[in-house]
Amino acid sequence: MGRLSIVGRNFCKTKLWKLSGPPTWKILIWRIISNSLSVGFNFVKRNIEVDPRCKFCEGGEMAIETMEHLFRDCPVSRRLWAGSELGLRTDHDSFLRIDTWIIDWLAYLEKDKDKQEQQLRFLATIWCIWSIRNQIIFKGIDFHSMIFFNSWAQIVSTGIQAIAELKKDSCLGGNSLMLEGARVHWVRNSNPVCVVGRIGECGHVRVMVDAGWKALDRAGIGWIAMSDNGEIFNSTERKIKAESALQAEGLGVSLVLLWARDRGFRHLEVSSDCLSVIQQIAGTERPHHLLKAILEDIQDCFSSFHCLAFSYIPRRFNNVAHSLACKAMDS
């Protein structure tokens, strides 16, 4: 793994994790900035025998797949940047390191009045280049520029729609509260949140968890933990046994609580893309018989935290935890 420059370290610490877009996009940017991405040039440096040429242009021995070439300098990538809604011209940027180039452009786009949408378009372009490059290698697709533009348009459209919904909820007072017993049922960005304890103190640590299930002995969970500034400090994958996908999701939440409790965390938010589990924890849905014992274990952990929140997030924002869970399930 490469080392972060001082500028790159500061950017990752203060800016990167607060950008709009899925965690997978931000992790890709972090890997680019830290020079830890598996491009052809990095394989050659490690004496690994692969074809190091660019998979887009394959322009002979000079077209070695460095990160600068892949994401910016390749003739195909240049056309993709210029043809996108951003209309970026990269012809005269080849003297810049890729980490400097990315950080500079994100800083420039931050000045735009629609900075969230513009930065999301920038991240989506980098993600699409990497995604299509991998499809060429691992799935053998034939590259055509329309593949990129169709994928790019779909990803950006989904992301901008999510930002618009967030703004709409904010204008309508989306953080509405409904007190019920010892818990608070909280609507945030149209998605339910259940809070136990002091509502104003939640969010010091956030864990995004997911589960994968195919059979009793083919189940897995995965999670990533982030500090309050959005920096990922832990990722975990674990194979489990579960009788159903729902039970696997519940076990994932339960194991996250035990993990956090054992490490002394007292202000925690657990996010899952399984709405049924969140609603059963909140008490707004009747407990499923396969979850009753797990829900009791979860409730036993309540007293270990000053503030504990359970929130629902759409699957598209939980891709990293989902990938970890699938990897554990298939191990």
Walk me through what this model shows.
By secondary structure, this protein is of the alpha+beta class. It has two domains: 6-169, no CATH class; 176-329, Ribonuclease H-like superfamily/Ribonuclease H (Nucleotidyltransferase, domain 5). It has twelve helices and eight strands. It has an eight-stranded mixed sheet with strand order 1-2-3-8-7-4-5-6. The longest helix has 27 residues, at 145-171. It is elongated and about 60 Å long. The relative contact order is 0.11. Residues 169-182 have low confidence and may be disordered.
Which tags fit this structure?
alpha+beta, 331 residues, 2 domains, single chain
Low-confidence stretches: 169-182
Distance from first to last alpha carbon: 24 Å
- How many domains? The number is 2
- The arrangement of helices and strands along the chain is HHHHHHHHEEEEEEHEHHEH
Trace the largest sheet across and list its strands: 1-2-3-8-7-4-5-6
Give the mean pLDDT: 80
How many strands in all? Answer: 8
The helicity comes to 40-55%
- Quaternary state of this entry equals single chain
Total of helices: 12
Question: What layout of secondary structure does this protein have?
Answer:
Blueprint: H1 6-14, H2 23-33, H3 40-45, H4 67-73, H5 75-83, H6 98-109, H7 115-138, H8 145-171, E1 176-180, E2 183-188, E3 191-197, E4 205-215, E5 218-227, E6 232-240, H9 245-262, E7 267-272, H10 275-282, H11 292-300, E8 307-312, H12 319-329
Parallel strand pairs: 4-7, 7-8
Antiparallel strand pairs: 1-2, 2-3, 3-8, 4-5, 5-6
Helix pairs in contact: 2-7, 4-5, 7-8, 9-11
